[in-house]
Amino acid sequence: MTADGYVHLNSAASSSLSVTSSDIVLDKEVEAKYSLLERIGRGSSGKVFRAQCRKSGEEVALKVMSAASKEVLKTRREEFEVLQQLQHPNIVQGLDFFGTEHFAVIALSYHAGNTLYRAVRDSELGHFLEDTSRHLFRMLLSAIDYLHQRRIVHRDVKADNILVSYDLMDLHLLDFNTARSLTEGGSLTMTGTIDYSAPEVLNGESPSERHDVWGAGLCLHWMLLGRLPRSASGFPSLSDFEEAVRTNPVKCDGIEWTETSEDCKNIIRLCLSISMQDRPAPMVLLCLPWLQEEEDPPKMPRQSTFPSWSSLETDEPDWDMWPSLDAESVQQTPVWTSFHRSEAEGKQHDSVLAAFHRLDCASRQLSPVAKPGFLEDESRAPALAAFQRLDAESRQVTPLKLALQKLQSRELPELGN
After folding, report:
1. Per-residue pLDDT tens for 85-114?
2. How far apart are CA 244 and CA 199, in angstroms?
3. Are residues 262 and 219 in the same domain?
4. What CA–CA distance (Å, rounded) separates 206 from 109?
5. Which domain holds residue 401?
6. Per the database record, which ranges form the Protein kinase domain (predicted)?
7. Which of 84, 220, 306, 409 has the fewest CB atoms within 10 Å, counting from its CB?
């Protein structure tokens, strides 16, 4: 559940949800611009829908919230105004705002996935491996550092307010309804979730930048162990929980930490320092050894049939696996079929390799492939067809690119018709 009471539904739950008249009645202005596709979240103050812009076809997330008074509507608009000024790859974007007499609607960039809380809970081990945790934590710190450099405090960094992609390769920080700009002046009220409250907040202070670092540290703890170091529900009273947070440092020294590196544990201890002055700023944390290490790509989720390429430099790929790949496992088969047909027709593979090289690795956009003149060259048709069949969500291009580089000087495996 997010800060404002939202529950982000996972793919299995949301796929069975259709949008009905009982879900929401949108303002005519909103309905004229967006068509609702499915409900993907719900909460005490409203619902979240996957929607599509009627003009551009772009998918968005519509956050529809109640706004019973002008003051509440003002608060909803402030959330959008904060998001609107942010441009970061790991922060959800604010695209549009609509305010009516009873509702406020924020159009956000849509990112398929689950909350970090749910992703960890649904994982095979009940927690993430260290490499995966480092990959996601680095992106989270990057987002928080971006905010702090602009004097913005999120104030509710927690696993429920973080969205991760299904393949655990991407992350977005969500729910800015409690975020505030420090440049506006004035005192900040207490807010956030009790289990994620830092010692100084429990002492009555307003959440600051170092409170965001505390929340990030708890998120890393959650990824590595599948639980927080302590929860209010596990104590006889709230005062007992607060006393434990104020006085008992997180040591990371139990048997469950034996497989975690010392550098990783040091990051957690720093983020969860009882004294806020001892918590480094995100930009400092990003320079520490554990987050400077060159990371291996996170392992694909357990349901994937994508072959492992981690040993590409020393071992041959498992060629027997390629023919069995289908449309739900990133569509490699059409790519290799295109190679096979190209070879049979006596055509060179260089144009296909060149097409892969033209991919923008940061955005993974396929449009550069279809630039003017591409279609006129008939030898490139198989490559273009292969790209069009690539799964648009997972976009697992890099392993194929590496394979192509290796295959330049060897004969392709026989794939049959």
Report:
1. 999 999 999 999 998 878 899 999 999 999
2. 9
3. yes
4. 30
5. 319-407
6. 34-291
7. 409
Secondary structure (3-state) at 221: helix
What are 55's two structure tokens?
């003009």
Residues in the chain: 417
Asked whether residue 303 is domain-assigned, the answer is no
Q: Which residue has the tokens 């639980």?
A: 227
The token duo for 100 is 């009516």
* 47 annotated ligand-binding residue: no
What contacts 344, CB < 8 A, 6 or more positions away?
A: none
Does 121 share its domain with 254? yes
Q: What is the pTM of this model?
A: 0.66
Can you say whether residue 88 is alpha, beta or left, with left for phi > 0 and alpha for psi between -120 and 50 degrees?
Answer: beta
pLDDT digits (tens, 9 = 90+) for 353-403: 333 433 433 333 333 333 344 334 444 444 444 444 443 333 344 445 444
205-228 tens-digit pLDDT: 988 999 999 999 999 999 999 999
**Phi and psi for 287 in degrees, rounded to 5?**
-95, -5
Give the C-alpha separation, 223 to 148, whole Å.
23
Q: Sheet harboring 114-115: ordered strands across?
A: 114-115, 162-164, 171-173
- Alpha-carbon distance of 260 to 275, in angstroms, equals 24
Confidence (pLDDT) at 24? 57
Is there a single domain that holds both residue 125 and residue 271?
yes
In angstroms, the Cα distances linking 185 to 80, 180, 223, 231, 383 are 19, 10, 35, 33, 56
> Do 279 and 355 lie in a common domain?
no
Q: Which residues contact 99 (CB under 8 A, 6 or more apart)?
A: 67, 73, 76, 77, 105
> Phi/psi class of residue 104: alpha, beta or left (left: φ > 0; alpha: ψ in -120 to 50)?
beta
Q: What is the pLDDT of residue 182?
A: 84
Residue 94 and residue 100: Cα distance in Å, rounded?
A: 18
The per-residue pLDDT for range 59-76, each reduced to its tens digit, is: 999 999 888 888 889 888
